[in-house]
Design brief:
single chain, 288 residues, mainly beta, Jelly Rolls, 7-stranded mixed β-sheet, 6-stranded antiparallel β-sheet
């Protein structure tokens, strides 16, 4: 496009095809500043740079903030030649947003250079966002709006627990699940989407136990025991509710899963509690 004076910016109605508009102003500049060229990106119309997308989209240098409303790939432009350029990518509604780069460029997040389509960069929760800035070769995160993943499940129906038999609790209710990571039923589990540190807590109570019995509660990670806690009824009694609470801070990888299991030595089959305050539970909290 032709060079324009600063006073003529109001004549522009649509963005230029190029990423930037070059403007030269001689008549309105001081003598010492004449013939200096000014690069002005995206400043003519404040609406430029913001958009919503309902599918995959490759950002350009005319974009500033892009809000995705459905499952999509958000592909950043090359970081080369645009040092200092920032892009905001957000999610509203359902559908995972996967952030991608070009030419094997990376995005530096929390001390790690993440590759294109890394789950660490994905927007899994409604309201998630990331702002990234080019350093001329790659990107680094300037604002991290990824929400911690939180999940909790319980079992309301009551599960028969055979004597001296390690039993997985088939949790039937997702109490909370902001990232769709809970699986209920016979293979109940909470599956991790992105690597990091997590706090996991679980408790199981068994009513109607007799004297001198033991109950063990275990947290399992991907089929392996990682934490346990036991409780022992040492005195005579009957119809006693006995159980245990176990907690752990774990470093988990993407696709790891956790579940809760219980073991008792009452001598006969017992059933977990069904009242709300007696139901088995397991919960996971991401540490960010």
């Amino acid at each position: 496009m032709a060079d324009l004076k600063i006073s003529q910016l109001s004549l522009l109605a649509t963005p230029a095809d190029d990423d930037y508009m070059e403007i030269v102003d001689v008549s309105e500049a001081d003598v010492a500043d004449q013939n200096k060229r000014i690069i002005v990106p995206d400043l003519v119309n404040p609406a430029w740079g913001y958009s919503t997308k309902a599918g995959s989209y490759t950002l350009t240098n005319l974009d500033r903030s892009v809000l995705f409303t459905a499952v999509a790939d958000a592909t950043l432009p090359t970081a080369v030649g645009i040092a200092g350029r920032r892009f905001w990518i957000g999610r509203k509604g359902s559908g995972v947003i996967t952030i991608k780069t070009t030419s094997a460029q990376t995005v530096f997040l929390r001390g790690t250079a993440e590759a294109s389509a890394s789950v660490q960069l994905s927007l899994f929760v409604d309201g998630d966002y990331l702002e990234v800035e080019s350093d001329g070769a790659n990107y680094f995160v300037t604002r991290d709006g990824l929400q911690p993943h939180v999940a909790e499940m319980s079992h309301a129906a009551g599960t028969p627990i055979n004597d001296s038999t390690l039993t997985l609790i088939p949790c039937d209710t997702a109490v909370r699940d902001n990232a769709s990571i809970v699986t209920t039923g016979a293979a109940a589990k909470i599956t991790v989407l992105r690597a990091g540190d997590y706090v996991v807590v679980a408790n199981v109570l068994i009513p109607n136990l007799e004297d001198q019995e033991r109950v063990f509660v275990y947290i399992y990670k991907s089929g392996n025991k990682v934490r346990s806690m036991s409780n022992y009824l040492s005195t005579a009694g009957s119809n006693v509710t006995l159980g245990a609470f176990v907690a752990a801070r774990l470093t988990l990888a993407a696709a790891d899963y956790i579940d809760v299991r219980v073991y008792h030595e009452e001598g006969a089959q017992q059933t977990t509690g069904t009242a709300e305050d007696l139901q088995p539970r397991i919960a996971l909290f991401e540490v960010r």
